[in-house]
Amino acid sequence: MKKKMRVLATVFALSMALTTLSACGSKDDAKSSNADDPNAKDTITALLPPVSANFQSNFDQMAKDFNAKYPNLTLKIEPASWEDMTQKLDTQVNAGSPPDIAFIGSDGISKYVDSGMVMDISDTVTDEMIKDYDPAPLEYMKNGKGLYGFPAYMEAHAIGGNKEFMEKAGIDYKKVQKEGWTFDEFREAIKKGVVSENGKTSRYGFVFATAGVTSKDYLGILVKSAGMPAAFNKDLKYAYTSKNFLEVLKDIRVMIEDGSMPKELSSIDAGKRWNMFLTGQTMITGKGLAGFERSAKLNNEKLQNKDASAVKGSIPVDYVVLPVPAFAGAQAQASVAVDGYVTFRGTKEPTAAHKANVVKAANFLSSGANAATTNNELFVAQITESSRKAAESMTVDRDADNKAAVEAMLKTAVPARPDIPTDLGAKAIKLEDEVIVPKLQALIAGEITPEKMYDAVKSAAVQAFGDDGVVKD
Amino acid sequence: MTEYAKPIKRRKINSDAAWGYAFIAAALLIFVMFTAYPVVSALIISFQEYKPLGSKFIGFDNYTETFKDSLFWKAAVNTIIYTLLTVPVSLFLSFAVSVLILPFKKRMQTAFKAVYYLPAVASGVALSVVWLWIYDPMPEGIFNKITAFFGMGTHNWLGSSTYAMFSLVLMAWLSSHGTSIIIYLAALLGIDGSYYEAAELDGANFFQKLWYIVVPCLKPTTLFLLVTGVIGSFQVFQNAYLMTGGGPDNATTMVGLLIFNNAFKYFEFGKAAAQSLILAAIIAGISVIQFKFLGKDVEY
């Protein structure tokens, strides 16, 4: 009996140990194609967030369509929310077992290139695939000489106005949509949009989300129209030490001091400023994405139908897409966000067949009918020939002037900079997070002067890139 | 003379002991897997430039970089300020609430305990969203309405360096006392009634009983809550991450947030591991000091 108990106890303890340890085993092998046979069965995994309203509900259909096109392949899609997308992906990347494909912003590629976990597909993509994509967004998926996936869309970062308020303020918004505007013109326009009574402002001219990390967007969008399309110039010298940077900082302060922007701007997040826009507390808001026209329209419909889910206190709003003004006499350039299907690899070298299969899946997701449906839902432009063709039969209820304004902005889109080495890029991101964003928050809150912020950025840049590594003008 | 080998005396394990070992093995395995292994891994990673496809040994570089990093020291100072402002006040509030709840009947005590414990059950993220709403910077914000009513004007609570840290501290003061209240109340119920009777016979008033009986009797509990409170406060991350993101101008950047950023924003796991171990050493040092000075006459 005693012997039996000893055996039982040992078996129990060992099984506990094995169960726990087995959890650490790699699952990499299971999904990879075993041989280099292109017709062998294979599973491709994709981690995808809710890119558009109905995107995730189409996953089953997308997987079925993919399997119909490539009968030996299975597309296994794992849904993720926008909130936990980065964390989920980072955890998988650092554990050495990321999904084959993940939908992320192209600006995140350099981080993963540095960790060695993204898969360069430049040697696997076919000419036919490459020809399908517009060159400008495709460039954003490159880093150095490598291509790390396919773009889904290229979205211009604009600002958005309330048509009625702009007309009342005498602003020729159609002209602005076509020809753009300078900062001085913009400054005068937003002053006209302010409504105050007894020293209390009930409507501001311009409200941009700047709380926390959104301040990064604010500055990033403005500096691109101040002759600094990237953190580094063509000679790879750090650009934000230019005098134009100081001019932008001064302009940021002046809009608050004019009373055109609220003094509490540093605490206004994306949700708050959209609420302020829909409730008539601001004439112009930023950043503005194409899909905001759709959101405003939806809210208008709710108001018309007396639907209780309409934003509380909101008014009917006609959303007008506007370009960002040009600063310091520079040419306005549209900041763009290129998001796409980035290809990853595990710690084990992927086989050529598996790599080719991942490319097929990323191409399938980012082009043709899939891209057409998603981009139409988002009100963004199609960036592949195949999706443009597929979209011909689809109707989109979109304002023609807004569509033309976005297309005009995309023509001045800031080009991608795959030539910036990852180590320089990483240093610039850290400088941005640890110096620029905190100082910008203090500048917006009125705690430091533009000159003080400029000096702090310059000194940190010289420390990071050396005296010869920064722009001096 | 022939010597015979003595048979090895085997220690007999009876069935109860076997089961004991089995259960200890399970607990030990879980400890090794989820506590000891990550700590040892963190120690190894702290000497490396970590990369999933092959890390590089770089000696003490991560530690020297951390000690030279002015942001790390700013975050350390912020963390100390936050701890000094939150922990003692939280302890006092928990103690005061527990003393106020004590005279009630058991059912009422349970009701109060449940009410005070509720925030601990709610998601921290949900609580932060509510607080973000309370701290709305515009004049119609709840907190701004209150301050304006009392003639103190409106303020940019989370967006200015002057108020951001205070706003986080206030949030800590007004929430999450549930656990401390339950522990204090349990300790209060453990004080023998004869002490109070004797004090009453001697004519002691409420505050004298509190000072001469309750406070000394609760010293082990207070020490426990102080040590765990300081440890928790030094590791604070969620509030700064969700409410201010560490801003403005790094006024609310805590060490926990810095470690998170280095690990998950910049993938500098080596530096993050080094900073975690430095933080652990600081916490251990403070805990030793607390035990040395406050735990002299404490018996468990």
Overall morphology of chain B: globular
Apparent shape of chain A: globular
Poorly predicted residue ranges of chain B: none
* Beta-strand content bin of chain B: under 5%
Element-level helix/strand string of chain B: HEEHHHHHHHHHHHHH
Which sheet architecture does the biggest sheet of chain B show?
Answer: 2 strands, antiparallel
- Roughly how many Å apart are the termini of chain B? 59 Å
Reported CATH architecture of the largest domain in chain A: 3-Layer(aba) Sandwich
Detailed description of the structure:
The complex is a heterodimer of chains A (473) and B (300). In chain A, the strands form two sheets. In chain A, strands 1, 2, 3, 6, 7, 8, 9, 10 and 11 form a nine-stranded mixed sheet that branches. Chain A folds into two domains: 42-155 and 337-410, Periplasmic binding protein-like II (D-Maltodextrin-Binding Protein, domain 2, 3-Layer(aba) Sandwich); 158-333 and 421-469, 3-Layer(aba) Sandwich (D-Maltodextrin-Binding Protein, domain 2). Chain A has helices spanning 2-22, 28-31, 59-69, 82-94, 109-115, 127-132, 135-139, 163-168, 173-179, 183-192, 214-224, 243-257, 270-278, 291-304, 352-366, 368-378, 385-391, 400-411, 422-444, 450-465, and strands at 42-48, 73-79, 101-105, 142-143, 146-147, 149-162, 195-197, 200-208, 282-288, 319-322, 335-343. Chain A is an alpha/beta fold and 473 residues long. The model of chain A is unreliable at 11-33 (pLDDT under 50). In chain A, helix 5 crosses helix 19 (422-444), helix 16 (368-378) crosses helix 17 (385-391) and helix 19 (422-444) packs antiparallel against helix 20. By secondary structure, chain B is mainly alpha-helical. Helix content of chain B is 71%, strand content 1%. Chain B contains 14 helices and two strands, in the order αββααααααααααααα. In chain B, strands 1-2 form a two-stranded antiparallel sheet. In chain B, strand 1 (48-49) and strand 2 form a beta hairpin. In chain B, helix 13 packs antiparallel against helix 14 (269-294). Chain B is globular and about 75 Å long. Chains A and B meet through helix 1, helix 4, helix 5 and helix 19 of A and helix 1 and helix 13 of B.
